[in-house]
Amino acid sequence: MIKVGLIGTGGISRNHQAAWLKLKDAEPQAEIIGVADLVAERAQEAATRLGISRWTTNYLELLDWADVTAVDICTTENTHAQIAMDAAMRGKHILVEKPLTTTLSDADHLLEVVSKYGVSLMPAHTHRFYDYSRSAKNTIDSGEIGTPIYLRYCSGGGFWRQDWSGNRISPVETGGNVLTNGVHIADLANWWLGAKPISVYAQGRNLTSSHLEMYDYFIMTIKYDNNATAVIEMSRANMPRSNSFMSINVLGTEGEITSGTEHNSQRLHGDDGFKFVGPDYQHGFDREIRAFANALEHQEPPPVTGAAARLAVAMCLAAERSIQTGEVIILGKDF
Amino acid sequence: MAAQKLKVAILSMSGQQASYAPAFYDNPRVEVVAITEDESPAPETVQRNRETAQKFGVPYIEKLDDVLAREDVAVVSLCSTLERRVALAQKIARAGKHILGDKPLTNTLAEIDAIRQVVDASRSKNGERIKFMVGHNYRFNPAILQARQLLQAGNAGLPWAIHSDWVIAAGKRAAPVGEFRNHAMYPLDAMLYLVASRPQTVYATTGAFFFENAKAGGVEDMGFITMNMDHGIIATTSLGRSPIQNHLNGGSGDMTIRIMGTHGMLVVDANRPHWLVYGKSGAKNMYYGPNRVYDMVDHFVDCVLHDRSPMCGLEDARNALEVTLAALQSAKENRVIKLPLQ
Ligand SMILES: NC(=O)c1ccc[n+]([C@@H]2O[C@H](COP(=O)([O-])OP(=O)(O)OC[C@H]3O[C@@H](n4cnc5c(N)ncnc54)[C@H](O)[C@@H]3O)[C@@H](O)[C@H]2O)c1
Known about the structure:
The structure holds two protein chains of two kinds. Chain A is an alpha/beta fold.
């Protein structure tokens, strides 16, 4: 039985909790046995929902609970590095939400500590676990479209459901939108294309408000060592806000795969207008957490490596720099 | 009295002439009077010239000068090898004839400027300005013309991004000049037209991924261009020719444009409307909208008859070529190129 301490009980932890609950009577068997959140009510509420008694506002206390074998870190982005290092130094295995860290020096430091203490670390790159991404990966790997040479990924959405008080639009807490959301697809692109990124060029805008200190819209162009290109466009500035248009295209030397909202199973023509209805996201979290538990159970390396997550962070920090300078950033120098 | 038909000469059945010539021939306001040719044409071209002349029931006049000397000929549809473009365009303009020019019009910006100089200085036999239209027929896709009207009327608010895919399919080999020089003007012209803005910077990636002749010739068969434009608009396009033989749209492949605005989003699919046909020959999308080359030629005829400037003129050809050249340079050097090009 894997005994898990959940650190951070905000928005995304709900999906994690649901996934862990499904492992209570499963194989591998796992269970959250305690939670921590800076906000007491949130921690307490999560404990109640999970039917457990242990909660704390100080994650260090959670790390001292001897029966905790692994932690699931769902805290704000800029806290991942410290919390994960503290966990590693106490011999706890780690599932950490993306982005791995918000700086590269943090990432390097963390990976060093993880290797020194011999714990397992899995960055939660959820997009590796969705049905859409795995079916694409399988098709690409089967050779059906030849060698993938061009990926165009457009993920569109409206503005975050928050105001100036929300942390999702805080560049300090999140490391910026290019980082925190870009890492998902940067990692996906690396995984699908199976090649090494060599440079990043990016364009970004703060469309919703000129006072917004992050890019609610960005597009990054990544060049790979096999001359493939990946174009990643992510929007939280779509209008109207209900517009969640998505499209994905992978062109290979001998074929192509395409999907997106136009290929969804449901389109809702409701009183609020037209809406694409996509698949439920929970299945990605379920599969991700099962994969982590499985790796621990069988003492296998987790399916997403720290190095892969570090690379995705480097690409997105490079993209951020590119937006600021207007230049192409070569990976491997500063990034 | 019946209105006089516009008399058109077809210069060389090469390049895009295979689609321009019938568009002139079938136009009710046009009379094609001759097929003609430049000096020393390829034997296959001569063959096609003869066949077309026979089909249209018009003479094949081997010397362009003989056609240009004719008072009644008002228009020349100019397709020829790229190397002879400038000299021919200048000669035709000096003879006072209006011109529909094949794409890509020229290899260089200087060549377009050289054509423009002569065109600006020349007049038709009625003393009117020479109308020079370039065959950017993509802009004449009804969905794109309509999209321009929707945008102009503010239906998407102020555009802040425009993204296009132009990847034709069913390829067997790449255009010898590369797919950027061959095709970039289509999506670029349409994008610049739709958002009515000018590009400031260009970044691009290219590769020879599909075709042996592209690899051997050192030209690209696929790539991606991204620009920063006036008003902060981000504009991108995929661009190339894929070897996919079973694309549902056939050779037309993917031709879409998505415009993001402050108050909405507009998606255009130039291969629609269509029927999805499951026929004996397989599955396919069958486009059933108007023919954009016919509409382009009709617009040109209109401009000549009514002394108006055509929509895709030398300036538009220059704008698209400038981005294309910048993109090629950018891809080669993996850096951002600022416009205007020096
Ligand atoms: N995989 C995905 O699809 C996905 C989706 C959304 C968010 N995320 C990631 O999940 C993480 C959390 O995002 P969220 O949307 O849930 O944010 P959130 O603000 O809703 O939740 C974060 C929680 O962490 C708590 N916290 C912060 N610092 C802490 C500390 N030192 N100790 C204990 N608790 C602390 C906060 O009080 C808050 O409750 C981020 O890294 C984010 O990028 C991933």
